[in-house]
Amino acid sequence: MPLNMPKTDTIPDVIVLRPRPPDAAMSYALTCEQTCDLRLDAEWIVPVEPSGAVLERHSLLVKDGRIAALLPHREADTWCAAEQISLPGHVLMPGLINLHTHAAMSLLRGFADDLPLMTWLQQHIWPAEKRWVSTEFVREGTQLACLEMLKGGITCFNDMYFFAEASVAAAVSAGQRIAAGLIVIDHASAYAADPDGYLQRGMALRDAWKDEALASFCLAPHAPYSTSDKTLAKVATYAAQLDLPVHMHVHETQAEIDQGMASHGLRPLARLHNLGLLGPQFIAVHAVHLQTPEIELLAEHGCHIAHCPSSNLKLASGLAPVADMLAHGLNVGLGSDGAASNNRLDLWQEMRLAALLGKGVAGDPAAVPAATALRMATLDGARALGLDQAIGSLQVGKYADMVAVDLRGAHNQPCDDPVSQLVYSASRAEVRHVWVGGKAVVHDGACLTVDEAETVRRAQSWRKKISGRAA
Description:
This protein has helices at 22-29, 73-76, 117-132, 135-151, 164-173, 195-209, 229-242, 254-264, 268-274, 292-300, 309-314, 322-327, 347-362, 370-376, 379-384, 418-424, 452-470; strands at residues 15-17, 34-45, 55-63, 66-72, 79-94, 96-101, 154-161, 177-184, 215-221, 246-250, 282-286, 304-307, 331-334, 402-406, 431-436, 439-443, 446-447. By secondary structure, it is α/β, with parallel strands linked by helices. The strands form three sheets. Strands 1, 2, 3, 4, 5, 14, 15, 16 and 17 form a nine-stranded mixed beta sheet that branches. The chain has a four-stranded parallel beta sheet with strand order 6-7-8-9. It has a four-stranded parallel beta sheet with strand order 10-11-12-13. Helix 4 (135-151) crosses helix 17 (452-470), helix 13 crosses helix 14 (370-376) and helix 14 packs across helix 16 (418-424). The longest helix has 19 residues, at 452-470. It is globular, with a radius of gyration of 23 Å. It starts with 14 loop residues before the first strand and ends with a helix. The model is unreliable at 1-12 and 17-30 (pLDDT under 50).
């Protein structure tokens, strides 16, 4: 006996069907073969696995935070749901996974735009960080980033920044998954005096939050040019002993490679290989300047790429050979980088750019098709973090991390292929609802877990402090 759908002359954004009164619910339950916490009835479900699949007029059922079933609407009627939501004209898809960001740097958005990477870092970003970065800065910057990312359908992000304990606390409070980067760098900062200090703080953070379901951890040596051989050897040892991913900027610019050759007589990737860092746990961020033998080396060792097309363009770092990476079997996920070098924590933009630039660089319109770009933004990011058995696609048994995208707008019509539409036409503005582990974190475009007005007020306060100091 299905729930009765309300009749209306217009199609509402979402129809929320509340539980029936006790007597009706009791008689209804007698007809149900199974029970669940939430039933979502979507126009289309794009599970990502198998690639390119589209389930029309299907329901997704959630129980205890995980996906219990995906069924045609009529078959789902045998389930008794505590809450049922109808999503006409919407695609239900996995939550997006931002494979590389510096969330707290949202407070430095627009601070030093239109500069080369090393000028941007050495003359602007690093001095500003030295003056301002603190637990408070990281907590409030990460809150701002979580708000932006959740409203854009990003349910998990891989971070790299100082005071990571503040980032973890902010993300968990927002109900968002975080892979917290335990940063390691040879330079002293307000966070730690030396590499051993960074590692000690990172291990303490991991121990303190190891039982939190929303948190996982990566070792995050900043870059080859900012970490010594001794430091990187320790990182490799920790990664092997603790089975942690290693998340690192690699071959972002030609200048980085030239500096590596001058200092070590090796290209940076060869140096990392000699130090034992390459393997299935290694995530190479940017990886713009790769020669074919280097792509083959990364693929041979089962490494992963965090491709950040917007940041690469804005800093004029170059165009990554993504089609070649994919052709060699490399796993490529998508990252936004920080808002200071991108200005948007927006994986819809990154998906579209990854697909279009991939075609342009390869000279092949069939390179990086829509289904591949969507997988890069979801399942492939999860795979890089070692989380693909839990998140990244809509499969029975995985956590119910989901995004409902409204495709009824004129710019999304007609909708012949929802997968193509998601990558080439849709944007984060069409994200209407987001769930993490079956819990609603965004409803009808509004974030339920972060106070938007207060978060914006604090961001504006930081702008006044930082710009005042700069003046």
